[in-house]
Amino acid sequence: MTRAALSFYAGCAAAAGALLGPLHELAEERLWAHMVQHELLMVLAAPLLVLGRPLKMLVRALPARWRRFVRVPRLCSDAAFGSITHAAAVWLWHAPAFFAAALASPWLHFAQHASFFGSALLFWWSIAAPGRRHLAAIGALFATMVHTGVLGALMTFSRGSWYPGYELADQQLAGLVMWVPAGLVYPLAAVFLGAQWLSRSVRRAGASIRSD
């Protein structure tokens, strides 16, 4: 089995673990479990699925005459667009009014999960897209780390509960989940991209010297 296939199946397993089984049931009662569910979708399942390159496999499965019609819009590979779209989804749904509305409506709850997951897929696609600009992708990763960390810290240090039906301690633990373990994914990905960029730069410099 290839590395891409392993990544894809791991992403499917992470998404299933977030949305099905004991965690989903616990998330109905505990905000911290709800946050774990969201973060599994956004910082684990989404990047693993992107690294699995499902679109490439889908294109290969299509008849040759149809493949030329499959195109990913260039905007989807723009790191700034991906990070802004993802940030909008994260902050919008964590606003108390929208969060409470999602809890009260199964359809809005589905929309919340779909927008978290969909915007995370777009974000990670823009980070891993072929021909990406490494510095722009690294900047988007650090910007996402900062704004999600700020939101997590606000929830952690709040003196009152933002969401009806949840205790303050539960909210603070949820904020800590977003702030620390989930927030570590972004700098780790940035370090990996930076090392990759430096390695390519060194190889190009070496090739240029040899050609001279």
Please explain how this structure is put together:
The structure is a single chain. This protein has 212 residues and is mainly alpha-helical. It contains eleven helices and no strands. Helix 3 (31-51) packs parallel to helix 8 (106-128), helix 6 (79-94) packs parallel to helix 9 (134-157) and helix 9 (134-157) runs antiparallel to helix 11 (185-211). The radius of gyration is 19 Å and the shape is globular. The model has no long low-confidence stretch (mean pLDDT 88).
Keywords for this structure?
0% strand, 11 helices, globular, 212 residues, mainly alpha
Summarize the structure.
By secondary structure, the protein is an all-alpha fold. The chain is built from eleven helices and no strands. Helix 3 (31-51) packs parallel to helix 8 (106-128), helix 7 packs across helix 8 and helix 9 (134-157) runs antiparallel to helix 11 (185-211).
Mean pLDDT comes to 88
Unreliably modeled segments: none
Roughly how much helix do the residues carry, as a percent range?
A: over 70%
- Morphology call: globular
Q: Which percent range describes the beta-strand content?
A: under 5%
Distance between the termini: 42 Å
- Pattern of helices and strands: HHHHHHHHHHH
Query: Radius of gyration over alpha carbons?
Result: 19 Å
- Supply the helix-strand structural class: mainly alpha
